Amino acid sequence: MSNTPMxxxxxxxxxxxxxxxxxxxxxxxxxxxxxxxxxARLRAQEPGLAAQLGLGDExxxxxxxxxxxxxxxxxxxxxxxLGTIAWPDAVVGCALTVERLMLPPSAEAQVPQGLTGGKxxxxxxxxxxxxxxxxxxxVLRDGARESAVxxxxxxxxxxxxxxPDLIPGLAEALAATFED
Length: 180
What we know:
Radius of gyration: 17 Å
Strand content: 15-25%
Helix content: 25-40%
Largest sheet: 6 strands, antiparallel
Shape: globular
Number of helices: 6
Order of helices and strands: HEHHEHEHEEEH
Distance between the termini: 33 Å
């Protein structure tokens, strides 16, 4: 968590930690899913795992620890995959980092009528104003949300935009993984 502000909430710090981790892997990476667990509970119930993750006693005890899950399946739509997830009680939240192409709001009026799926994706990819972004979204069981967005052209820790409502659709999909 070298670049995460200590005054931020535990959820914001977890999102920024995941963003920093993904940044270290470079661009053009697959989506990555993380379980979020209570750090103090992890230390108490799984001291061996906590030690393996480098969570010494000297670190804060009120945080969230992201634990990367297995690689997401290829060939399956992200929303379909998320619909298959059920988390154990020890998981207090989850996060996903994914890269996408985005257009500025001013380009919405330019989208040709009737484009969907692959044709729309190609149109966006060919648009001169497209931006490559990495989005990290996290949700907790209690409904709290946080997001981080990093533009490829401004790939520095000081240029990461954060906020709870930046990517509402993805946050909703992640929150649904906690519904019974």
